[in-house]
Queue: 4 jobs
Job 1
Amino acid sequence: MKIGCHVSIRNGYLGAAQAARTVGAGAFQYFPKNPRSLTVKSFDIRDASACRQYCAEHGLVSVAHAPYPTNLALDDGELYQKTVASVQNDLDIADACGSLGVVVHFGKYKGAADDPLYGYRQMIRMLNDILVDWNGEALLLLENNAGQGVRMGTTLEELIQIRSLTQKAEKIGFCLDTCHLFASGVWNGENWADVAARARELEYFPHLKVIHLNDSAYPSASCRDRHAAVGCGHIGKNGLWELLATPECSGLPLILETPAPPSGSHREEIRYVLAHIT
């Protein structure tokens, strides 16, 4: 397994890859642009290509993460079109950097439509609009939600169903966030065998491309999205090791999104996880 953490692109995409390798990471995640903006970024293709080459030379796996304001379940309007253009831009950057894809949170519909399925239809529509002309290798990676604010996108069934109803399902994969799965109540730390069995039944695992390895600061079913360092939360190390021992998870890149330690580096946490899974 390759494990790493989220890194800054303050020194460019190549700089992000180099920073990841400096802390002993075999994988890393990055925001392709300002994480708080949906503005389309005109990026340096030479820097992105250098990142791709560096990762290939050193066996690094990278994945991009869409900016925080990205919401796939929006109503019609200017923000809808802005979001479509933003995610397409993220995919372009990720592809240029040689990344697996762009992690995007499952949509959250907060509108007033009487139809409870309206938000899901909007999400399918947006995914189709984003991917209609996308022919690159980078995938759009749907991430499960924790249930904070809106319960939408917490179950494996939702992820599978949304993907199956899109026009270019082959361009969509999944990112599993362990804290979100636990916080949502789908996983309670003791029922992983049942969750994994359901994932196999749904054929979820063949499309799982990356795992966000996070402990949870709050109990299962709290619907509170607060990450904790591995082994220091309510999931605990034994629960996380059981999940990682699942055959279908073998070889998937693991990304730590845990609180930065006082040193500012995840080097020790990366070593800790590697010592227990290899």
Note: The chain has one domain: 3-277.
Job 2
Amino acid sequence: MPTKTILRSSDVMSLMNRAEEFGLKPISAKADLSAIISRKARLIGEFADDRIQALKDSRFTLYEERAAFLSPHEVQADHHRLTAKAFIISTGSVVSHVPIAGLEEAGYLTSDEALELRDVPRSMIVLGGGPVALELAQFFQRIGTLVTLIQRSAHVMSQGDEDLARPVEARFREESMTVLTNTRLHRFTQDGTQKVAHLTHEGKEKTVSAEVILQALGRQPNISGLNVEAAQVEVHRGKIAVDDTMRTSQPHIYAVGDVNGLHEIVHIAIQQGEIAGWNAIHPQSSPRRYDDRLKAQVVFTDPQVAGVGLSEKECRNRQIPYRVASYPFADHGKSLTLGETHGHVKLLASPENGKILGAHIVGPEAAELIHELIAVMYYHGTVHDLARIPHYHPTLAEIITYPAEELAARLNSGPEVKGTETSTDLSAGQVHP
């Protein structure tokens, strides 16, 4: 919520700076970061107050204290010792500390601190290529900071498919951001007021300097101080291990959200919390289980990136047969009228029956468009269903029908070889093995 609030400001500023493109007289827009942060603080304060009041309802007993396990059935808080039949651990995550020589000495901002800045930095090095790094890098670039984004992998969002990352990188570079992928960081030094990154990029050693560093290299489960050893709860690579009922190695102890490391996504944490809550108070009933078939994620960059279900990488790694088709926003009427032509829609379907295995969008309003695909997948829909659903013209949503129609036609034309995949570029009319 805090990040999405400030991103709205930089999105508006970006549109203002594109005024001439839409036949409007150019405007000189300047960001007031202090006012942006004040708006964020007000909106998030109201949101948080509602949640706090809910927890102070008379139905609950709320202890606002730090607690640690004494045993599998007992915790010690600051002023109370509590026992219970069940426990749910939901302590979230903290910023990971990465051992890069000189980084601690040079000093850096975390995402939490970046969200409180009141003055626009002149220049910034952003470390990382995940959602937090990308969203904040574009925000600061758009409000006037000279940003250099450094990513170790071959492309940003390295856990996902490359074709979803490239339109984002292209947009960043159009906006004058320096994006360095396939980069190895060696060390940091200080040169007066500048922080200097020493690195290897494309086989050449070079340096990059900036006024501030934003360290956005990921987060880790927040379990320090919980004394989970006393609870005899298993931890794997710093994450509390759980099964699909959200139970830990102790059947009466549950762990949900970032602390179990499955998905660092709010709505999934809520799902897991509801499952754990039900199972904790209905131990004799058939347990509810978490199914990640409909796992969804959104990155609120411009263009936005959204996906549900399996990616191509996951299908290949799990040896799941699939067919894939995509269609570009650059060849779609409504996106052309909006001036938003980066990206595409991609569908993955079962070659046997056309059931949708995964759906991905990089482009305008991807965060909203993905929900139609989540709904169809919820009901185990196929590309045939999706192609038949009426879509209003002209809308962004109708672009989804193009790859659906292509896949439906290909699947109807006869059996295909199981275990292979093809990609379709409909704008060029080509099918590539």
Note: Confidence is low (pLDDT under 50) at residues 415-433.
Job 3
Amino acid sequence: MVSDRVLIINGVKFKNHNISDHSIATRGESMEISIDVGEIGKFVGKYSLGRDNGENSLHFLRIKIPAGQIDSERLRKIAELSRKYGKGYAEVTDRQSIQLHWIDSDNALEIFERLYEIGYTTDMCGQAFSGACMGDVRNIVTCPLSGKISEFDVSELSKRLTEFFTGNPEYLDLPRKFKIALTGCGGDCVRLGINDLGMYGIIHNGERGYAPFAGGSIGASFPGPTIAKPLGIFIPESQAFEFVKAVVEIHRDFSSRESKAKARFKNLVNKWGIERLREEIERKTGMEYERIEISNPKPSDHNGHGIQADGLYYYTLPVLGGVLSAEKLDFIADMAEKHGSGEVRLTPEQNVTFVDVSDVDVLKRDLSRVFEIRESKLRYSSIGCASNFCGKTKEPHAKDMLQKLVEFCESRGVEDVSIFISGCRNACGCHHVGEIGLVGRAVRAGNGVSQGYDLLYGGSFTELKLAKIWKEGLYGDDLFREFEKVLEVVRNGAKTEADK
């Protein structure tokens, strides 16, 4: 029997349902442990360092950028943090956060204080906990052009939810992390189907609201890669906050705590089914939602440039793999002020979108002083994870392999495909839903072990379709030979035996 434990830090209660420590609590008893940690209590439940195991980095810092929206002043302050604590290196993640590496834990409180001053927090990385506990709501992926190309500004809901869940002790002991995505641009630009909860903004009978998708996650946890299922209900915009809150609470209260492998929300959705999940949501909210039929969201991206609702323009700068330097962050901030309102939007494809631009050509001319601008689907829509830092791969790491394959495609005049690369089966690079996907694995080669990759094809997050395996355990020249074959299949729409 596991003791029910309540930890009180600076008067705030954190209830942990899944830790048994017999040196502190008698078996089967409940107890409260009260700690006054003084001023640093403001960091509790809001700030955390993640664990690295590569490139001589022991810790990373993943800074949540609510709705992916950041102004030039804050961008410069993150550049400062990168320069002082992270060797001047930064990454835009595919959840619109900014990640720094080589963080010394001795500097953690100093870094957290700086983030606190500028109003940013971090993901609560639960790597230190072996059990199914201490999960949090991760940065909410949001349409990068919310409020710019239509009146449906889903970023307002995203920011409200972020403020509510961040540091809220009622939601800091989820069985595992919980991922949410929101879009209101009329299409899917945020990979709705691979999130625990995807909220697809629609207009239904003249009213703005959402068609929710639940139970997506393409990592290796039980029951394996899973595409979210439509709930078949319409959530009016005014009720969306309470709806999302209820779904997170269902995950908190009912998802398995038996093990990390079984604790993701997709496992509960798979076990319960959509009908029971709907019933539980309606019970919690006290609402009966209108049943609707919803087709798969149509593809959407905000690459290149386009016109905003106010007549100004947006422009998306391709940043392959999301890799930036502190100097480039400063330069982006300068360009945002010079050519727009001083705000940029980070995208789920690891790019940077400038908004409120009066002259796109002049902006691009200035950007080309620092960036080599190649505007192709290949460079805009391909993503790679940071496997070199987490220690999940040897060379070539995911981002290195992405660069090599992009150059391979360009050398053959191919620029109309996207490539998603993950270093391991945790699927941080979303390889299961890429037109072409790769996932790293160790491969025996001669007397040693080489870095290899499984090659997949035919995935689509908008069609809610998982990719199929082409060949496994490829490395060296064999990988490039097979990649060229699958490239031809994907581009020509040819069918293989697996498709027939």
Note: The domain at 66-374 is CATH 3.30.413.10 (Sulfite Reductase Hemoprotein; domain 1).
Job 4
Amino acid sequence: MRLLGRIGPGLLLLSLAIAQMAGAAARMVDGTMSSRPNQVIGNEITSAQRATVEKGLAFLATRQRRDGSFAGYGAQGHAGITALAGLAFMSAGNLPGRGQYGQNVQKCLDFVMASCQESGLITSDTTSGPMYGHGFATLFLGEIYGMNKDEDVKERLQKAVKLMQRAQSREGGWRYQPISADADISVTIAEIMGLRAARDAGIKVEKSVIDAAITYVRNCQNADGGFSYTAHGSGSGFARSAAGVASLYYAGVFEGNELKRGLAYLKQHAAAPATAEHEGYYFYGHYYACQAMFLAGGDYWATYYPAIRDHLIARQNKATGAWSGEAGEDYGTAMALIILQMPNRYLPVFHGKGPGG
């Protein structure tokens, strides 16, 4: 298998160990044991998927700027999208300086580290709400630190977590700016995943912060099982419902009626990946839906992944290897590659307990 030569035996053993621990920690959902999310179902990775991923990774590498950054949301260098690109390369088994795209991961890390401010905020972008990018960047640093234990990364990761904790709203969620005035589920899932990765890497995260976040996410759920954009807000939508279900999992909620209803909503609306409801936030929605279905396991994953895999393969620009997403080609390609490579099971954040676990 060609990937074994790329990632080396150490990371392979780490991945297998994580998979075994996550399987052992499987929880009860609606009275029945969900299938292990790490259990290979046999039809996940196809020759078409491999070829698509290889072409996509090659394209993404050409998009990296000299300073290590990737662009999006009107910014030439965006810390959040650079972090997502780094995660896309890491999903193929690359680490900083190690693997076919190891130098690309290292350059992503260099740019994200350079974007860390003294306050703890990670941003290089002044054109949009920085907390989106902060969440993605914290997730990336958490995954890096969990593998290399670099003290410089640890220092910035700790500051990023402290800023998140200060910026949490009274409702328990987060919003575009690092102030505690408001919240929405879209920014909240980004912060929860960042906290999850940091905690898994050994960084202290206050339990009260996670408990408040769980309360906020539950308050965003509607009677139909889907989630609204804000607590007690408007109707349900696919992308925000995917974010809501993923939020519960990453916050350490593995059982309960809210998960059952949320997964049922996702399963119903994910059956046709290209429906108009999905298209407004296609990559964003499926980025979280893929994680939610993976963590649910069983029929959820077995039905969902082949459908989104084949749809992403069809959507790829065959001439360049790119995908065009809501925030441009760098963003769309990174998101598509993370989704497609979920079966590789290399990123620790996709396994085990959440930050409150």
Note: The chain is about 55% helix and 0% strand.
